[in-house]
Every structure is written in C-alpha cells, then in structure tokens.
Amino acid sequence: MLKDNQMVVTNANGDESVCEILFTHEHNGKNYVVFEFLDSHEVSAAIYTPGASDDEGTFSDIETDLEWEMLDQVLQEYFDQLENEADEDEEDEEDEEEDVLEQN
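^ thats the sequence. predicted structure below, dont judge the formating
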C-alpha cells in the first residue's frame, strides 16, 4: 500500500520501484517532482505534466543542464532546511531536559 507521498516509477525494462516524493517545485511554468528511490536512496527528479484529474499525469525527463543545476540548488536548500529543523528540535529537547532538572 502506497502512502500519500509515494509513487511507483517504472523504468525502461518494466521494473517498478517505490519512491518517496520529497517535494515539488514550480519554475518557469514547469512543475518538477523530486523523489527518492526507497530501495537505493538515490534522489532523482522529473518534469510533471498534470492530466485531466488529480490522479493522472505524466512524467518526462529533465533535458537541460540548467534545469538540473536549478534543481540541485533547490535540493540543497531542502536538505539545509531539514538539518536546521533537526538542530532546532534537538535544542528544544535539551531545553526541556534542563527545565525538568531545574524543577527537581
């Protein structure tokens, strides 16, 4: 059973892989989907073109180095944000532990 943030990608050989959608990004009128293969943890991206309904759409390859460079930058910002959130959560936990110790 797929979660809401997952999709199945079928390669040219017909092999299917489950991927987790990390985020979507719109740039110059194109919609991009950045995803991670759950089995290999490889991160990739594709251009998404919506279909007639929310459940339909097609993916196409990213064709230019400029697009890949833009997505690499957006991906780095995504990872930086995750790291900052993890650091903030860690600091919050340390503050809570200090508060408990001070109360005792």
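Residues 24 and 33 are 5 Å apart (CA to CA).
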